[in-house]
Structures are given as structure tokens and as C-alpha cells.
Amino acid sequence: MATHSEDLRRRIVADINAGAPGTKLGSERELADRYRTSRSSLRQVLAALEEAGLVDRVIGRAGGIFISHAQVQRSLGDVVGVPAFLASQGYVAGTRVLSTKICAADATSQKALGLAADDFVIEIQRVRLADGSPISLESAQFPADAFPGLLEQQLGGSLYEILESQYGLVTARADERIEAVNATGEEANLLGIKPNSALLLITRITYDQHDTPCEFSRDLFRGDRTRLAVTAQGRGVGVAPAVAAASVALQSQDRRAV
């Protein structure tokens, strides 16, 4: 059974997720009355939410508690699952599984995963949550022959952890392409945003310890909740890198043709 403070936190987070950044939730007195709690209990919960970047507390006559919706940061230098980088930033990670299936690999998946025309893939579609708020929509495909029984696993956490613990696979590296796109109506509905809102589309091919492609995924991150970070290594003037670590290119306006 949830404690009073945890129940209070969940109720406030639900109201935060239903609002827009900058919206005033109310004053401490108003919120204490609304949630039927003491102001001391409310302050403890608000302090934790403020530290997590979900609310701002403003002092003064026009002050109060305002929705913040801080951005989550995704590093481009690490191959980690969403739960890991959310937890490292103090968020409670959550997942809503939308669909799972085994289907024939299309031409794009065949090329990405090195499959034959008659091979099948496991496809898993999920919405990722940070403190109960949707931040990304992901569609991941895996070679069906390589991971028998994958759909029988608990799919609410890190798929990389499942691959390592159940199949002995270690994710060694990933090639990613990043594009700025606009949300379709369906994507906007799943992410709780307006149609045509800005999204970051990350298309990824992940390789295992044997340099074999093991995952092909397309992740859509909310543009208003996400920022990307990368650490670049300097090599000195006039010294060409052996391998290009990152690149930026203009993409076709029709991302569905990728």
C-alpha cells in the first residue's frame, strides 16, 4: 500500500502531466486544501518534485507552484537503455507496452540487421515515461531466430538487460542517425502533445560483442523534454580522426521514406 507521501506525489504528478509547462498549479495553501494534506507534508513532496525539475516554486504575491517539465538528457556516447539514463538523472522510469509481434522483415530491416528476404523479426512498440509523463515512443526490432522466447519476458524494463541476462548478448556499439521531425496525430496522442510538435527521431542499429547487428530501432523523443549530449575528443590541428564519431546531414522531409 502506498504511503501518504507517495500517494500525494502521484496525485500531483498526474496534475503536472495533464498541464502545460508554465501553468500555475496553485499556492501552497490552495494545494494543501485541494489534496487534503498538511502544508508540511506538501512541502516535502514539492521539494522532491522541484529537485526532479517537475515544478518551480516562485515566492511573492504573484508566486506559487508552476509546472516546469524539465528536459531529460540523453548521452550520444553511451549504449544504455532508457531506464538507466532516466534513473541516473533522478527520474522514475516507466513503460507502457503498446504492441508485440513476430512479422516478416521489410527491406529496411533486412538491410539493417543483415537478414534474408524470408527472415522474421520480433517487433516491440512501447511508450517510455519519466515520472509518469510520456517522453518517447519506441519501435524496436530483433532477429527472431536469435532470440527465441523474447516476447515471453517481462518487457517493461530494459531490453538490453534481458538480452544480456537471458541470451548472453552484450551491446558493444550502436550507429545512430538523428533527425528533427514533426509528430503525426497518432504519435502526438500517444505522447500527450499537440500534432506537428517537434520530435527527435533516433534511428539506431545496435551491434553485439561479435559485431553482429542485433537491434534496429526508431525512437521518437519529445523535443520539449529532451536534449542530446556528446563528448568530443580533440586530436590536434591537422590530424584526421581514424573513424568519424558523429555526423550531421540534411534529411529528406519525408521521414517515412527512410
TrEMBL record:
Keywords: DNA-binding, Transcription, Transcription regulation. One of its GO terms (biological process) is negative regulation of DNA-templated transcription. Residues 1-70 form the HTH gntR-type domain. Gene3D superfamilies: Chorismate lyase-like, Winged helix-like DNA-binding domain superfamily/Winged helix DNA-binding domain. Signal peptide: none annotated. PROSITE patterns: HTH_GNTR, HTH_RRF2_2. InterPro entries: Bact_HTH_transcr_reg, Chorismate_lyase_/UTRA_dom_sf, Tscrpt_reg_HTH_GntR, Tscrpt_reg_Rrf2, UTRA, WH-like_DNA-bd_sf, WH_DNA-bd_sf. GO terms for molecular function: DNA binding; DNA-binding transcription factor activity. The keyword DNA-binding applies. SUPFAM superfamilies: Chorismate lyase-like, Winged helix' DNA-binding domain. This is GntR family transcriptional regulator. It comes from Mycolicibacterium obuense.
